[in-house]
Amino acid sequence: MAQDLKKLLKQEISHKTMSKNHEARFIKKLDTHLPKKKTNNFSWLSIAASVILLIGFVGYNFLNSEDPINVIETPLVSDTKSLSDVSPTLKKVEEYYLASINLELSKLKYTTETKELFDGYLERLNDLNKEYDRLGVELTKSGPNEATINALIDNLKFRLNLLYRLKEQLKNLNTSEANHSEENQII
């Protein structure tokens, strides 16, 4: 009973040949039983155009947004020195405070109800940024001295504390609004 499979297959294949129109009949049967694939040469173009329009719309809205968090002015002067130019230790201090300030800014939620509160705090933050830039110019002109370095660090501390106070006031405002809405539901 045990036969070599290779020999059996060779015998079977060599004896049988396909009819002349076998391939054409096979393709015809495939076409009748399988759904036809629609080919659209311009489908990738329409997808690409949609993506470009979406990117353009989002980019336009981002650049023209009136979000006060994005309105904070950044210094444009690159010739001025900062704490990072004085020493590696002061660079770490400056990076810590700037990272903390940016983190706190990113956590804040801006709503129409809190617009006045945000505007007041952000105006004060812009004033502190301008003062920091002025201190950077002073550091560049007069060189590093203890008073200027302490003023720069105090400015960073004050900005971070200002954001902590804003966060706390927003938390209190949201808590009082939640309590007020609960009281209205009970009544």
Structure description:
With 187 residues, the protein is an all-alpha fold. The protein has a domain at 105-181. It has helices at 5-15, 22-33, 43-63, 83-86, 88-107, 115-142, 146-186. The longest helix has 41 residues, at 146-186. The radius of gyration is 35 Å and the shape is elongated. The model is unreliable at 68-77 (pLDDT under 50).
In short:
The chain is mainly α and 187 residues long. The protein contains seven helices and no strands.
How do the strands and helices of this protein lay out in sequence?
Blueprint: H1 5-15, H2 22-33, H3 43-63, H4 83-86, H5 88-107, H6 115-142, H7 146-186
Helix pairs in contact: 5-7, 6-7
Strand content: under 5%
How many distinct helices? 7
Tell how many strands the DSSP assignment holds: 0
Give the class from helix and strand content and strand pairing: mainly alpha
Low-confidence sequence ranges: 68-77
Rg, nearest Å: 35 Å
The mean pLDDT is 75
Largest sheet: none
Order of helices and strands: HHHHHHH
Helix content: over 70%
Distance between the termini: 92 Å
Features:
187 residues, mainly alpha, 7 helices, 73% helix, 0% strand, elongated
